[in-house]
Amino acid sequence: MRRICQSDLVLNAPLPWSLFDENGNLLLREGYVLSIPRHINALLERGAFALELPAQDADPSTLTLPECHVLPQAGDSVFERADSLAMTLKRLHAHLQAGSLKMELRLVVQGLAHGIVEACNEDADALLAALHLTRQHPYLVIQQLLGATLVDMVARELPLDEPTRLSLLCAALTRDLSLLPLQPVLDKQDGPLTYPQLEQMRSHPERAVQLLLEMGITDMLWLDLVQQHHERMDGSGYPHALRGAAILPGARLLAIADSYAAMVTPRSNRVEQSPHEALKTLFQDNTQRYDDPLLQQFLKTLTMYPPGMLVKLANGESAVVRSRYGLNDALDLWCLYDSSSMPVLRPQWRDANDPAHEIAGTLRVEECRSAALVLKRLWMQS
């Protein structure tokens, strides 16, 4: 599946393939004739995807994951790659809940893991920005993708060998499989967890391992990492209250990435923290709950102002952090709204060492929706 572009759509000619939205829902069937220019413009603005079917008589409504899973294609921007990865994971979750997965789980998850690695290789800052800024996918999808991306980025710095990194990524993408039936309820629930929900939460690592075993996963490191990802260094975690050296180093890293991703990813019933606030929370709450050297490396890799973080400047402008590597030791800040709160057509770099451009506060994505297109272009041009 790939995103269509202007050259794919021809007036008064039948579509050579069916078109789908970002969630995999059918928009137009193969053979439909587009005869009005504004309809083409509407499809391009909305975002439509072409599914090249394996057979001419294939029914789009009965496609299985092997035929329609969405992995990055050569030439995609990193933002498109992030969206494709999210669509793949979302569809995988749907198949797992429906019991309709018709291919080996290991292959799908490893494909997703390799997609993350390739996107990080191309532009890790753009991938981080995309996952911090996206709002069109479910909580669990983005939370897992962001956590997996951070795990891969930190693992490169340790460094870990490729097989170990792959097992880490696969664990990060599957650590919460057993929560799939419960997560939609949690996303909308305002009150505290009920006792049965609390029991489900505390047992979900072991239940996830059981599900993975039932689906043919034999990588013991992958399985052990999933089982231990909620353990804490001081013994306050679950399901077995492991302490210190009894917890695998990879599971300690998963715990940090999982906690951070949970804090910065919004739910319908909860406002997310800014990346800066989430990192401060991790350190303030770290009464020996997390592995301190790993937490320090996590901060060093991500930085306190990660790509995609939206901020308010002292002079009233709104800006975004584009990369983790600044210019002349200054943050890589780019103005999106002027001091009158009007969107700028071309973002301009701002020197955070200038008192007028000091960060005065943080912003939510919802406060910057009119700059969405400009935001994406900021990374695509880099």
Summed up:
This protein has 382 residues and is of the alpha+beta class. The protein is 46% helix and 9% strand.
Observed structural traits:
Hypothetical protein af1432; five-stranded antiparallel β-sheet; 382 residues; 9 strands
Task: Please describe what this structure looks like.
This protein is of the alpha+beta class and about 375 residues long. It folds into three domains: about 1-60, no CATH class; about 125-300, Hypothetical protein af1432 (Orthogonal Bundle), CATH 1.10.3210.10; about 310-380, no CATH class. About 45% of the residues lie in helices and about 10% in strands. It is built from 13 helices and nine strands. It has helices at about 35-45, 65-70, 80-100, 105-135, 140-155, 160-175, 185-190, 195-215, 220-230, 250-265, 275-285, 290-300, 370-380, and strands at about 1-5, 20, 25-30, 50, 310-315, 320, 335, 345-350, 360. The strands form two sheets. A five-stranded antiparallel sheet has the order 8-7-6-5-9, with helices on one face. A hairpin with a 5-residue loop joins β2 (about 20) and β3. α3 (about 80-100) packs across α4 and α4 packs across α6 (about 160-175). The radius of gyration is 22 Å and the shape is globular. It starts with a strand and ends with a helix. Mean pLDDT is about 85; it is low at about 50-75.
Class from secondary-structure proportions: alpha+beta
Question: Strand count, sense and closure of the main sheet?
Answer: 5 strands, antiparallel
> Which shape, going by the Cα principal axes?
globular
Radius of gyration, Cα only, in angstroms?
22 Å
CATH-level-4 superfamily name of the largest domain? Hypothetical protein af1432
Task: Enumerate how many helices there are, as a single number.
Answer: 13
**Could you list the spans in which at least 5 consecutive residues all have pLDDT below 50?**
51-75
The topology string of helices and strands comes to: EEEHEHHHHHHHHHHHEEEEEH
The portion of residues assigned to helices is: 40-55%
Largest beta sheet: strand ordering = 8-7-6-5-9
Number of strands: 9
CATH architecture of the largest domain: Orthogonal Bundle
**Mean pLDDT, nearest integer?**
86
Q: How far is the N terminus from the C terminus?
A: 25 Å
The CATH topology annotation of the largest domain reads as Hypothetical protein af1432
Strand content: 5-15%
CATH C-level class of the largest domain: Mainly Alpha
- The total domain count is 3
